[in-house]
């Protein structure tokens, strides 16, 4: 006698198939979900994580800068001359800071493009601690994902190297900036010799604030002490000979001079109304400051009034004017027409 088979009706077959699919889904849903998350992680990055990594990198680099200076092992040499004929020094502090900062970011986010002022092939096994500081957690929401290929990170391992060699340590900073599609979104400026760190995430939060008042009649203008060009005559032509002009080192320091710092440790920072630079300047010098100003309603533009594109070439050729708490457009209208060939 032949064995009896089980014959399903069309409805039964459909139910059986659905039950089977349900079992398969429960078996593999977790695997599929994990795979999709991993795929997304490779293609996108959470900007809050990048802010935390940037802050950690700036502080880590700052520790190296401080150690080298305090142990007096600068090993200073020259990288060459600027367009104005000033020597560009390179120290062990620059290199040690670069190695920590660059490798921390690249080891944590290997696919992100990182541009640094310094270059070498030393690999450091440093990775992010996964720590997000409490004030960032309090002010910035997570889940701010952007495509990795839209991100450019600019790092300055030691801003104001000339002043660093002269022991003018109040000017020295380490800086990290995150630009998305060429726009500065995250900025970190760390002062190694006070321990203070300024940070900002545009439209999300910052630990800085503008001062209560600024003026352009005439303003206090902060400028470079070592890359000044003909900036004094340019400024006096705009605002008059009685304008207060403050020479200072480091682009990071100059941006901080426009802001109110919440720490007594940095009370000695000069106070200025406007920051002006009329010669070439590199984007790793100014990107972090631009992000801080943008987060506070300020602006950093070229002297032509154009936004600076923080992607591509590292050189900004058209000078800059930076302000917060002022009518930036009115400020630009006072400044003489920009003719780079004159400066």
UniProtKB/TrEMBL annotation:
Cofactor needs: Mg(2+)
Compartment(s): Membrane
Gene3D superfamilies (UniProt xref): 3.40.190.80, Fructose-1,6-Bisphosphatase, subunit A, domain 1 (3.30.540.10)
Stored Pfam families: Inositol_P (PF00459)
SUPFAM superfamilies the UniProt entry points to: Carbohydrate phosphatase
Protein name: inositol-phosphate phosphatase
Family per record: Belongs to the inositol monophosphatase superfamily.
Catalytic reaction equation(s): a myo-inositol phosphate + H2O = myo-inositol + phosphate
Single GO molecular function: inositol monophosphate phosphatase activity
GO biological process: phosphatidylinositol phosphate biosynthetic process
GO cellular component: Golgi apparatus; membrane
PANTHER family linked: 3'(2'),5'-BISPHOSPHATE NUCLEOTIDASE 1, INOSITOL MONOPHOSPHATASE 3
Keyword terms of this UniProt record: Hydrolase, Magnesium, Membrane, Metal-binding, Transmembrane, Transmembrane helix
Membrane-topology annotation of the record: Single-pass membrane protein
Top EC category: hydrolase
Binding sites annotated in the UniProt record for Mg(2+): 117, 156, 158-159, 285
Pathway where it operates: Polyol metabolism; myo-inositol biosynthesis; myo-inositol from D-glucose 6-phosphate: step 2/2
EC number, as in UniProt: 3.1.3.25
């Amino acid at each position: 006698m032949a064995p009896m088979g089980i014959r399903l009706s069309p409805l039964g077959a459909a139910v059986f198939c659905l039950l089977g699919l349900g079992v398969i889904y429960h078996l593999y849903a977790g695997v599929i979900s994990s795979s999709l998350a991993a795929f997304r992680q490779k293609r996108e990055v959470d900007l809050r994580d990048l802010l935390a990594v940037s802050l950690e990198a700036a502080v880590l680099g700052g520790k190296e800068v401080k150690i080298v200076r305090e142990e007096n092992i600068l090993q200073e040499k020259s990288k060459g001359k600027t367009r104005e004929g000033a020597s560009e020094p390179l120290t062990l502090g620059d290199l040690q800071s670069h190695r920590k900062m660059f490798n921390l970011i690249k080891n944590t986010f290997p696919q992100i493009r990182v541009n640094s002022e310094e270059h070498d092939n030393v690999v450091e096994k440093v990775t992010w601690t996964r720590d997000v500081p409490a004030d960032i957690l309090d002010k910035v929401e997570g889940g701010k994902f952007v495509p990795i290929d839209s991100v450019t990170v600019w790092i300055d391992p030691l801003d104001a190297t000339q002043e660093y060699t002269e022991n003018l340590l109040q000017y020295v900073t380490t800086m990290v900036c995150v630009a998305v599609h060429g726009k500065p979104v995250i900025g970190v400026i760390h002062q190694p010799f006070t321990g203070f760190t300024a940070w900002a995430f545009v439209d999300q939060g910052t630990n800085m604030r503008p001062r209560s008042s600024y003026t352009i009649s005439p303003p206090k203008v902060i400028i470079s002490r070592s890359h000044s060009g003909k900036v004094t005559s340019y400024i006096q032509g705009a605002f008059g000979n009685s304008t207060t002009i403050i020479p200072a080192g480091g682009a990071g320091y100059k941006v901080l001079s426009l802001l109110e710092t919440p720490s007594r440790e940095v009370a000695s920072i000069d106070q200025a109304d406007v920051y002006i630079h009329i010669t070439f300047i590199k984007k790793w010098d100014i990107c972090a400051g631009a992000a801080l100003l943008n987060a506070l309603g300020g602006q950093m533009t070229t002297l032509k009034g154009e936004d600076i594109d923080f992607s591509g070439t590292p050189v900004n050729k058209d000078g800059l004017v930076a302000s917060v708490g002022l009518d930036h457009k009115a400020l630009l209208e006072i400044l003489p027409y920009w003719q780079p060939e004159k400066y």
